[in-house]
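Note to self: keep these together.
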Amino acid sequence: MDIKNQIDKNKLPVHVAVIMDGNGRWAKKKGNKRVFGHRNGVKAVKNIVEAAGEIGIKYLTLYAFSTENWNRPKTEVEALMSLFISAVKNETENLIKNNVRLKAIGNLNLLPEKVLKNLNEIIDKTKNNTGLTLILALSYSARAEITNAVKTIAQKAAKGELNPENITDKTVSKHLYTGEFPDPELLIRTSGEYRISNFLLWQISYTELYFTNILWPDFSKNDLFEAIIDFQKRERRFGKTSEQLK
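Structure:
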């Protein structure tokens, strides 16, 4: 039986987030430079975006570049930025054809001007698409995101625009980069690492975590489907007992 047909379309996670890890190790295994792994990682992105759209996932967030990644060797960062531009340009028609809406979160002002310009152009071109929303986390840090949200809330309170007594977790959520999106229900990390790496720390409070040893360039559509099938076998209690859910 085709693995995709084993998925219960009535129990799909609305939002799937992915920490795409292992490009460098994949390249090293093949005797190549890290950028070779990043190029092949882009192919995996294309496959996973297509797979998510095929089965009806509404939101897909990909951790593409963290604020910590700026500390990598200059040549690798420059190669990654160049790769972002070409990948975004090359995929524009496919995103439009497949009704995918592109969004981006993170400290985007740190991105090179050319990268940001191309990114914003595609975000604008796809803004009316109604299928999968693809969210790229670029120059992203969850701690910075939460800190910025706290600063904004504090400023509003100081101006009298917000009563501190009325601040709730929903207030904080609304002021995060992801304020317009639902929290992820499933977080996938590839490459065998068991870390969250400063990704969506607030949003994944009740997210199901799925770890796989597969390096990102080798992560296929079927691997995504297997992660979703695993998710569908889990009991999500949100602090309640099994009996309360029945």
